[in-house]
């Protein structure tokens, strides 16, 4: 009996996905470029299972049922292309290659078309959930060549996480690079969520002077509110964790954050498409600032930086902070879906926004209770442009607005950096302003560069140029939009 699917790459994610597939009754053929890792896996975590090892790509291909399904769980970029180039000569028409790594979506678009010309069907599937998710049920976001979906659907949906109603957090996203684009935005929202939580932590610790046990208890309580989510849950666990000396471990971790690039890609795509993804982009920059540890230490001494303690009732401040965090989190998702909508229309993907929210309901890093409310919002109104306009989320934002302003204003007053919470409320203030000072900006552009402007007393699309000094000419520059 031949294998149902082959998996290349035996790092943590690859191994756990294989074990997950085996648990669901699929026969998996495992391969790794370092052959010894295949035997180590078979004699270790895979011992006693139905998993079969392959010691060459040819052996992997020979052991698979047609049409062959091969999933790559390797580092994004050149490594994926290298394996594809080695596999193609060994495969037959209609075989399927699945890339389950964190690929940049233009690469998945390119691979879909290049492989289609060779008769091979390509699927770019974003996988989220980390080690635990891969083992017990991740969120999976497949896109690419839709002809492959009926063949990979039974496997991917079987291993995916399930909502409380039993719906798989895996469904076809769209053609070309749509799956990896949605995964990229997921990771961008993840960046934003994590930074927002860190800002709340610093407000409590440095502003309110709370200890780690108090913060552990607060996050545990918050996880039973609308903030119920995986990241809030693990934050409570982290804040309550003691090292071998009985002291909070997180306090001893160096405050320099790493990143792998998906947050940066999200920000770049937002700029390319003209979407104000302010919160997520600030979260990327916050990691960049954190990496400048030595510079921060020196500059802090230069400016004699201190954080003023926050006075007043701490219980009231904690509740205000919870509301500020909740409202900011809604803005993060709202901006993320604005980007997804723009990309869908730009690339003609016809993405289903409600189903996208469902993909993230369980299994992934940003899984949270209110993703069900996001799904409901887009099912009620598929044309919803701004998530905050949905009645459920609008009411939350309006109820939280006073506390949100109070917290961000106090943070600035006391010297606590809150780039994401402040950018979120600034975005909302701009997005809800009928008139912004961009009229002056356009006048400036026209003054120094003859870039023209539109007038409020004339139809849209009619452009004007003024000779502001009497010395300039009447020739206007070309007008264009981002």
TrEMBL record:
Q: Which gene encodes it?
A: gnd
> What is the organism lineage in this UniProt record?
Bacteria, Pseudomonadati, Pseudomonadota, Betaproteobacteria, Neisseriales
Where in the numbering of this chain does the 6-phosphogluconate dehydrogenase C-terminal domain appear?
Answer: 179-469
| A biological process from GO | D-gluconate metabolic process
The record's listing under PROSITE patterns reads: 6PGD (PS00461)
Question: Which Gene Ontology terms cover its molecular function?
Answer: NADP binding; phosphogluconate dehydrogenase (decarboxylating) activity
User: What family is this?
Assistant: Belongs to the 6-phosphogluconate dehydrogenase family.
| Residue numbers binding NADP(+) | 9-14, 32-34, 74-76, 102
Q: Which organism is it from?
A: Neisseria zalophi
Quote the record's binding site residues for substrate.
Answer: 102, 128-130, 186-187, 191, 260, 287, 445, 451
Q: What class of enzyme is it?
A: oxidoreductase
| Keywords of this entry | Gluconate utilization, NADP, Oxidoreductase, Pentose shunt
- Which EC number applies? 1.1.1.44
Report quaternary structure and partners: Homodimer.
Query: Hey, which pathway is this one from?
Result: Carbohydrate degradation; pentose phosphate pathway; D-ribulose 5-phosphate from D-glucose 6-phosphate (oxidative stage): step 3/3
Q: Which residues are catalytic? A: 183 (proton acceptor), 190 (proton donor)
Official protein name in the record = 6-phosphogluconate dehydrogenase, decarboxylating
Q: Which reaction does it catalyse?
A: 6-phospho-D-gluconate + NADP(+) = D-ribulose 5-phosphate + CO2 + NADPH
Q: What does this protein do?
A: Catalyzes the oxidative decarboxylation of 6-phosphogluconate to ribulose 5-phosphate and CO(2), with concomitant reduction of NADP to NADPH.
